[in-house]
């Protein structure tokens, strides 16, 4: 079994840490800019319940785009595959995650996939609930179950900071409202989406969630099927094809693990049928992925032959 020793993981983390100097913390959401670029933590969660970790695992990260996978799972459970994919496509894009350009030129006019911002907004729109508050509570309940941690919540400050500055996301929403992809009040949706992105946890929680996806939706400790197998598989497929933004192809070649990153510097990895990985390193590369986090995954994959291909 790979990486059973924390010492081994620590060595890999130390080798990757040197790359943080070449990265940059995201600043388009002002609150994210407060993160320490040198901080790095990593955890691997196994089905038997044991977890190995390295770095300061108490550090919390906001999920940002990692939340797109969780919202997709919930929306698929709420509405079913046909409904969800009538609003969002299946195809990867070579564009940055917040690009607006293909929204207009794709025919029919819908977001290309659920991992870019436009697609994620269309998916979050589908989360059921009587009110925005109920929708965020339902998502939080789901995330807490996946992580096995009832104390998980969102960070008010990060949510507010994004809400104030999310003009590009608002414009994606207005475009989609014009084309009947969404039909709710845009401010409502942005309010919900910014809270979703601000859900906070540490890399241990993230590794636990990664493990549930690795096991096709099965939570091995409580022995519950938290996500239907077919839904977990759809999510993992998008993690492979679009999870690392417009670096997903290179990542698939070099690492070959279903993974999803966020601009906070988090990466959730799911090694099929084996284990979950949670990483937090706020310094990002030019595509918006944790620069040291990608290195850690590359080293783990090579050392333990983890590529699924
Ligand atoms: N909340 C961020 C946004 O919508 C998430 C993007 C990301 O993590 N890439 O811009």
TrEMBL record:
<comment type="similarity">
    <text>Belongs to the glutaminase family.</text>
</comment>
<feature type="binding site">
    <location>
        <position position="245"/>
    </location>
    <ligand>
        <name>substrate</name>
    </ligand>
</feature>
<feature type="binding site">
    <location>
        <position position="169"/>
    </location>
    <ligand>
        <name>substrate</name>
    </ligand>
</feature>
<feature type="binding site">
    <location>
        <position position="65"/>
    </location>
    <ligand>
        <name>substrate</name>
    </ligand>
</feature>
<feature type="binding site">
    <location>
        <position position="162"/>
    </location>
    <ligand>
        <name>substrate</name>
    </ligand>
</feature>
<feature type="binding site">
    <location>
        <position position="193"/>
    </location>
    <ligand>
        <name>substrate</name>
    </ligand>
</feature>
<keyword id="KW-0378">Hydrolase</keyword>
<dbReference type="InterPro" id="IPR012338">
    <property type="entry name" value="Beta-lactam/transpept-like"/>
</dbReference>
<protein>
    <recommendedName>
        <fullName>Glutaminase</fullName>
        <ecNumber>3.5.1.2</ecNumber>
    </recommendedName>
</protein>
<keyword id="KW-0007">Acetylation</keyword>
<comment type="subunit">
    <text>Homotetramer.</text>
</comment>
<feature type="binding site">
    <location>
        <position position="117"/>
    </location>
    <ligand>
        <name>substrate</name>
    </ligand>
</feature>
<dbReference type="Pfam" id="PF04960">
    <property type="entry name" value="Glutaminase"/>
</dbReference>
<dbReference type="InterPro" id="IPR015868">
    <property type="entry name" value="Glutaminase"/>
</dbReference>
<dbReference type="GO" id="GO:0004359">
    <property type="term" value="F:glutaminase activity"/>
</dbReference>
<feature type="binding site">
    <location>
        <position position="263"/>
    </location>
    <ligand>
        <name>substrate</name>
    </ligand>
</feature>
């Amino acid at each position: 079994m790979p990486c059973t020793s924390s010492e081994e993981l620590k060595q890999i983390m130390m080798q990757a840490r040197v790359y943080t100097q070449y990265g940059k913390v995201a600043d388009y959401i002002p609150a994210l800019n407060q993160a320490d670029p040198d901080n790095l933590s990593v955890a691997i969660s196994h089905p038997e319940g044991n977890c190995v970790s390295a770095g300061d695992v108490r550090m919390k990260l906001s999920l940002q785009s990692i939340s797109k996978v969780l919202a997709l799972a919930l929306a698929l459970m709420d509405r079913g595959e046909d409904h969800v994919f009538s609003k969002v496509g299946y195809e990867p894009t070579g564009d940055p995650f917040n690009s607006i350009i293909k929204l207009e030129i794709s025919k029919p006019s819908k977001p290309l996939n659920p991992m870019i911002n436009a697609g994620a907004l269309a998916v979050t729109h589908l989360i059921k609930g009587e009110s925005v508050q109920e929708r965020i509570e339902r998502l939080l309940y789901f995330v807490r179950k996946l992580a096995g941690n009832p104390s998980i919540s969102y960070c008010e400050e990060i949510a507010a900071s994004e809400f104030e500055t999310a003009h590009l996301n608002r414009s994606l929403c207005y475009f989609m409202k014009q084309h009947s992809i969404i039909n709710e009040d845009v401010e409502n949706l942005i309010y919900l989406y910014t809270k979703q992105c601000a859900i906070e946890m540490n890399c241990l929680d993230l590794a636990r969630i990664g493990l549930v996806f690795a096991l096709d939706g099965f939570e091995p400790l409580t022995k519950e099927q938290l996500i239907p197998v077919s839904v977990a598989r759809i999510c993992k497929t998008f993690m492979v094809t679009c999870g690392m933004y417009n670096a997903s192809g290179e990542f698939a070649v070099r690492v070959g693990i279903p993974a999803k990153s966020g601009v906070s510097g988090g990466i959730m990895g799911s090694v099929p049928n084996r284990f979950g990985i949670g990483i937090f390193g706020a310094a990002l590369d030019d595509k918006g992925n944790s620069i040291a986090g990608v290195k850690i995954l590359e080293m783990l994959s090579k050392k333990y032959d983890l590529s699924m291909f």
